[in-house]
Amino acid sequence: MQHTHHGAHAPRNDYGQLIAFILMLCLLATAGYALQHTISCFLLSWIIAYLLDPLVIKFETYGLKRIYALALLYVILGILAIFFLTFMLPKLTMSWDAFLRELPQYIQKIKQTAFEWKARIPDNYGSDEIQWLLDTVSANVDTATEKTGAWAYGFAGRIFFNLFNILLSPILVFFMLYYKQTVIRTLSSWIPDQRRVIVLDISQEVNSSIGGYLRGQVIISIIVAILVSLALVVIQIPHPFLCGIFAGAASVLPFIGVIIAIFPALFFAWFQYQSMAVLVKILIAFAVIYFLEGYIVKPLVFKKSMDLNPLVTIIVVMALGELLGFWGILLALPIAAALKITWGHVIAGDFRH
Predict the structure, then answer these.
(1) What is the distance, to the nearest Å, from the Cα of residue 334 to the centroid of all Cα atoms in its chain?
(2) Could you read off the pLDDT of 174-229 as tens digits, one per residue?
(3) Count of CB atoms within 10 A of residue 260's CB?
């Protein structure tokens, strides 16, 4: 009877654990929202350390101690940072300032075009609905100008506000890389003995999948940004570097990133030239770049695919992007891959005894 009594209370204990787990998630979400700038700095540092760790390991294979390998790595990064600050940052700053100055002109051009389209619409074929749409766009264009300008200046302000985090990140990265093995040993000691082997095996599998994805995505984003910038410079489109950086960042988004990336270049080209020939050149340039990216660069960079369902991928990106913003979009696929790998081991019964 005593055994039956314990069995009857087991579901209640399970419910208690479930409630405690949900409360813990809510507490973590609340703390994450309150400490979003600190967590953002930590995530940035963690990703940078994750990307740089293979280089440190490579230096160690040549007989360097980890502290000397880190010193060599920081010397190389310092040289690259000086090059960026000397040559690239001034160009990006001037391009951004020019964009802010020209932003009201862009919005007014949209308003003028809307009026022109409205005047050309005939009095049939549902023109009332189209005219209502154009009237709505024209009526709200001034509000859109204010909001767009506020967003542009706010974006620059947020970058300046997070300057402390940017300066703090190299220090955090150094200590993350230096104490990596100590952290791994400490975390491993917290895992129960009967689960340690399978958890470490899953960790290695997740690390291989996520590490390859993050490093590969950074390489692809840089390649896309450079190719798009060079192509737009050749075609003589305004703000080529901003468009290139936007295209590189948009390549993080699966499936729809290719479509989003081309909009700024098309808009600037249309505003500057009002020529279909130039728009066609941009479409051809982006088609060639993304053909190379999809059929040559990605197969070389992503030697092992995460093999995620496209529908699940889009849902995860949308959900985590809504919850965590930029970091949710960036980490959506790695998180989905980690959950898929772990769930596969659960289904296979690897946690059973």
Answers:
(1) 11
(2) 998 888 888 888 888 887 777 778 887 888 877 777 777 778 888 888 999 999 99
(3) 14
